[in-house]
Amino acid sequence: MTNTDTDQQVVIPGDEITSFLQKGRNKIILGPGLRRVANKVYACNGGILRYRSPNTYWVDSHRKRYIPERNEMVIGIVVNKQGDYFKVDIGGSEPAILSYLAFEGATKKNRVKLEIGDLVYAKLLTATRDMEPELVCINAQGKSHVMGPLANDGYLFHCSIDLVRKMLNPKCPFDKIGDHFPYEIVIGMNGRIWLKTYTVKSTIALSKAILASEFLSFSEIQTMCDDLIKQYANS
């Protein structure tokens, strides 16, 4: 296996996939859908076994229910405030926690202002079965990068996890549409997309195009993007 577009190894829960792993000097990283038991690796979800160079493996499966995974970027909705923490809905079985100090430059006196219902783009610091997920809005260097609160004038909509992975694929043609169709977009691995354009009409058109691309090939998505660009140029 050499790339995420040509892998066609179908797995079901319980399949041992140890023999498919490329053993070398690099430590193998197991993503969603895979679990290590003793010295063997098993699939715990059904789907297609994927590989990204140099050493990352995961199972690409079509699902709408989100299962939190460590280091994934998600869009959350603040649902409560408790002491020094926010409770954030990320679409999992239970809310995640987000500390007041988990923001760039935050101190006890300089706290970020988040209200119930606000959106936040964050990274999962921990995600285990025995503990509630924990979010942060800073990287290892203490910088926010692209994380933090999202503006309330954007449009939030939901999609499948499969579509999220397709949108994040470097070969997805939607990146090129930004040269002709100005917009801002934030994609969460929990099946949430935040979108902002300059008009309500363009927001609706682009969000519908994104949702329609779920079962399209990249060439078909490119054709749809070309049509959108023409419509925008003529409007």
Automatic annotation (TrEMBL):
Database matches in PANTHER family: EXOSOME COMPLEX COMPONENT RRP40 (PTHR21321:SF1), PNAS-3 RELATED (PTHR21321)
Q: In this protein, which residues make up the domain named Exosome complex exonuclease Rrp40 N-terminal? A: 28-65
Q: Which UniProt keywords apply?
A: Cytoplasm, Exosome, Nucleus, RNA-binding, rRNA processing
Q: Where in the cell is it found?
A: Cytoplasm; Nucleus, Nucleolus
The name under which this protein is listed is Exosome complex component RRP40
- For this protein, what is any one GO molecular function term? RNA binding
User: Entry's SUPFAM superfamilies?
Assistant: Eukaryotic type KH-domain (KH-domain type I), Nucleic acid-binding proteins, Ribosomal L27 protein-like
* GO cellular component annotations of the record: cytoplasmic exosome (RNase complex); nuclear exosome (RNase complex); nucleolus
Organism source for this protein? Answer: Parthenolecanium corni
Q: Which CDD domains match?
A: KH-I_Rrp40, S1_Rrp40
InterPro entries hit by this protein = Exosome_RNA_bind1/RRP40/RRP4, KH_dom_type_1, KH_dom_type_1_sf, NA-bd_OB-fold, RRP40_KH-I, Rrp40_N_euk, Rrp40_S1
Question: Hey, which family's this protein in?
Answer: Belongs to the RRP40 family.
